[in-house]
Structures are given as structure tokens and as C-alpha cells.
Amino acid sequence: MDAIADLSIILKYLLLGLFQGFTEPIPISSSGHLVMLRDILNLQVELAGLSFEILVNFGSLIAVLVIFRKDLIRLTRNGLRYIFQRDRDSEATADFQFILFLIIATIPTGVLGFLLEDYISEQLSKPIIVGYTLLITGAALWVIRNLHGKKNDGDLTIKDALIVGAAQAVSLIPGISRSGATIVAAMLVGMKRETAFRFSFLLYIPVSLGVTILGVSDIVNDDKFSALLIPYAIAFLASIIASYFALKWFANIMAKGNLKYFSFYCFIVGILAIIYFL
After folding, report:
1. Residue 43 confidence (pLDDT)
2. How far is 264 from 13, CA to CA, in rounded Å?
3. With contact defined as beta carbons under 8 Å apart, do 25 and 60 qualify?
4. Which residues contact 202 (CB under 8 A, 6 or more apart)?
5. The 3-state secondary structure of the chain, one letter per residue
6. Which of 20, 96, 206, 229 is least enclosed by beta carbons within 10 angstroms?
7. Whether 224 contacts 55, CB under 8 Å
8. Given this model, what pLDDT does residue 1 score?
9. How many domains does the chain fold into?
10. Quick one: CA dihedral 17, 182, 212, 108, positive or negative?
11. Which GO terms describe its biological process (predicted)?
12. How far apart are CA 211 and CA 194, in angstroms?
């Protein structure tokens, strides 16, 4: 019986890792799906701490770093070249400016997360609320489904960065997709799809890295961590693999301008969640 129970737990965490990893990059809210799925699978006790969320989000971060490694290397090289060399060409200047905008866009999330983290986790992380917030995500994606922006990386402004950063801060609420909110905001301020996509996921990196670093103490002090080490490890690996392929798939959909399908999905799942959890 113990072996069967252990296998059941492992399968549940595998499913959770795959779900979180797959839903993290695409605009349907990974946090919202995790809230609903852990309720349906009756994992409220096992997931009482933050260790699981931190680990699977770190898995998604690894996938994003791998896919955007060329952009990160170029931005780092040109950013350092801009700072330490007097002869600054247009490429170095543009990339340094892009880095500054990413930093500026990160600030609203850090401030809101610091001020409202407890309220969000205690009051807004409920399956029924996720149903309603998924409808909001679906409506936002529907609004920008046919937009074609004109702004490239070098055309962005501080105002653009702050607006996209504010959208990311709102996505701390489960059911409001982070990628969806930032891409919607980016396209509303006039960014091209490619620029909006890149800015959204490069913006994900500092926020996710910050959450991971701040969450190390939670993992160290988690009494259940050692007992659930194997299920956690499986979920972690599953989130890396699922995030990688989901992001590749989403990049293709984004290039073709088919965001309306994610809008339909959010509407359907949101309505079903409201009916089920009401």
C-alpha cells in the first residue's frame, strides 16, 4: 500500500510539474492552473509551503535562459561594452538602453509583490477567483488579437517600460497570465509582436531569479522538503522540459498572430472553473 501511495504522489507531482511548465510561458496563467489543479488533486497539505512553487518556477526559468541565451549573451556583451568603452556604437547604445528598460519594468512587480504578497496568497489564491481572472486574461488577449505594432527594440521609451512593468505586477494575481499581461501591454503601447515577445520573456528572468533567490530560505526551512525530495525533483525536471517546448510552440503561434485561440481557452476554462468551484 505504501508503494502505491508513493507512486500516486509521484504521478501527481509529475502532472503538476508538467502543467506548471507548460502553462508558464503561454498566456493562460500557470499560477492559476496550479491553484485549481492542486485543489482538484487534493494536494493542499503537501503544497502548504512555497518550496514547490519556487522549484517549478526555477525550472521554467532555466528553459527561458536556454532559449534566449543568444539575446542574453549579446545584451551582456554590449551592455558591458557601453559601460567600459568610450567608443560606443549604435548597437551597444541600443542594447544598454534595452537593459535599462528591463530594469525599470521590473520595479513595479518588486514593489507590489513586497507590499501585497500576503494578501494575494491568502485572499486571491482561490480557485473560484482564478475562474474570474481567467476571463479577464481572455478578454485582454481578445482585444489585441489583430494588433500589429511598429516599435522595435530601439524605439521603446521609459513610459512603455513602466506600462509593461505595471502589467506584470498585476499578473501576481493567479489567473492573470504574466506572459499574457506583459504581451498585451507591450502591443497596446505599439510594440511589434517579436519585440513584445522578447521583452516579455527577458522581463521574466529578473523577476523569476529574484523569487528563486528569496525563496532559498523557504526551501531550507521547509520540513516537508526532504520527505518530498523525489516528487519535487521529478516536478522540477518536468517543468524544465515542458516550459522549453511550450515556449518554442508559443513563439511560433505569436509570430503567426494566433493569440485568439488562447483567448478562447481562457474563456472556456474560466467559465468551467466558476461553475465547478462555485
Report:
1. 63
2. 27
3. yes
4. 68, 71, 72, 75, 102
5. CHHHHHHHHHHHHHHHHHHHHHHCCCCCCHHHHHHHHHHHCCCCCCCCCCHHHHHHHHHHHHHHHHHCHHHHHHHHHHHHHHHHCCCCCHHHHHHHHHHHHHHHHHHHHHHHHHHHHHHHHHHHCCHHHHHHHHHHHHHHHHHCCCCCCCECHHHCCHHHHHHHHHHHHHCCCCCCCHHHHHHHHHHHCCECHHHHHHHHHHHHHHHHHHHHHHCHHHHHCCCCCCCCHHHHHHHHHHHHHHHHHHHHHHHHHHHHCCCHHHHHHHHHHHHHHHHHHC
6. 229
7. no
8. 42
9. 1
10. negative
11. cell wall organization; peptidoglycan biosynthetic process; regulation of cell shape; response to antibiotic
12. 26
Residue given cell 512603455 in the structure block: 160
pLDDT of residue 200: 97
Q: What is the pLDDT of residues 112-165, one digit of tens each?
A: 888 888 888 888 889 999 999 999 999 999 999 999 899 998 899 999 999 999
Q: What's residue 5's pLDDT?
A: 52
Cα separations in angstroms, 8 against 5, 66, 241? 5, 31, 21
Residue labelled with grid coordinates 522595435: 152
- Phi–psi pair at 246, nearest 5 degrees: -65, -40
| Spans of the chain below 70 pLDDT | 1-5, 43-50
Whole-number pLDDT of residue 45: 46
Residues spanned by the domain of 161: 2-277
